[in-house]
Amino acid sequence: MALESKSHTPVVGQPSVTDARETVRPATVEELSRIITEAVETKRTVLTVGGGTRLFAAGKKFDLAVDTTALTNGFRHTPADMTATVPAGMRFAEAQERLSQKGQWIPLHPPDRGDSSIGGVIAADRWGPRRHRYGTAKDWVIATTIVNGEGNIVRAGANVVKNVSGYDLNKLYIGSRGTLGIITDLSFKLSPLPAMRTTFRACFSTAGEALTTANEIHRAPLEPEALLMAKGRWTAPRAKHWWLLIELAGSEESVKAQAKTLSSLLEKSTANRWNEASQDDAAFYWRTASLGNDETAPIFATAEISFPKSYTEKLVSWLVEISPGASAKFLPFRGVAIVEVSQEMDRSLLIDEAVRIGGGIEFDGREITSPHDRWPIEPASLSIMKKLKSALDPSDIFAPGTYVGGI
Asked: Which of 144, 145, 187, 285 sits in a 20 to 30 Å window from 121, CA-based?
């Protein structure tokens, strides 16, 4: 079955990406609204596709895949207010490039190779090492426009930095994985681009030594933009030790003063070696820390673990004990970690430990094909999430059965 051609143009060849029966690529929000209205009337299920870098279809075949990459009109940047509205189909890297021309940026750091759409980054709530200072999308998104489960174009939030009127509904769509509607544009508060950045890298024999130094850095008069503790595939190829990556950013005067303090601290630490990296080396280190190095064999899956920050030391020690050779990276002062999961590893150990410390866990990998396998710990808010899904998507057309708890 095909929707009426007057409403959209089918995209030939793309259904293999999502195994959908039909793929469409609307060029305007109004066209998208008509497509969703028809999907509701004909009871068709819909999967939203942006850059396709974090797509999870849970092994299901959908009636319609909606490719948002043509929704790139409507970019608006107001430098004086330090806000911008970005169309959902625009590549995140392109948005950052445009904003940088006025010395501003969206201070998020998703791990990708430049292909992720802005809508996909926010729908998956992706983050990277700079989460240490800047947090996640919930700290920067101020307004969202979506096409909801009735085909209506709905805007939540406002294009102002301080907005306290009513419920902040736009936060619902961050991390919703396309289950509540299709994001068409997002408004952000922005941050000035730092005048200078520099990266320090330090190697330690044990996780305990690296964490001790990380704590000393955290207590020092420093304001790192990123502070990452990593081992294995997220460090240099074939590296066996634990590394700290520290990025300082700000004015030239501030960075130079902080670099002097950090150098003194690392000199007195138990680091086997450390250095202030060149610009090219720093770019390589952070790219590897985000994506993993290409010389490492493909992995079965990764586990993203969230946990109370007070449990960082215990979780690091526990992980080293049960799987000393596993690759891992921690943002120790944000309570998040990503751990390599081999095919032989007993995933229940990770799940049980996350439950024990009151955390959460998400598995990601080609062999992870069901919501229960991906999100094995159901959140306490699941019943509320299901009510929101019913209210915003009453016909249950948006990616049904692909999210936590089978939402």
From this structure: 285
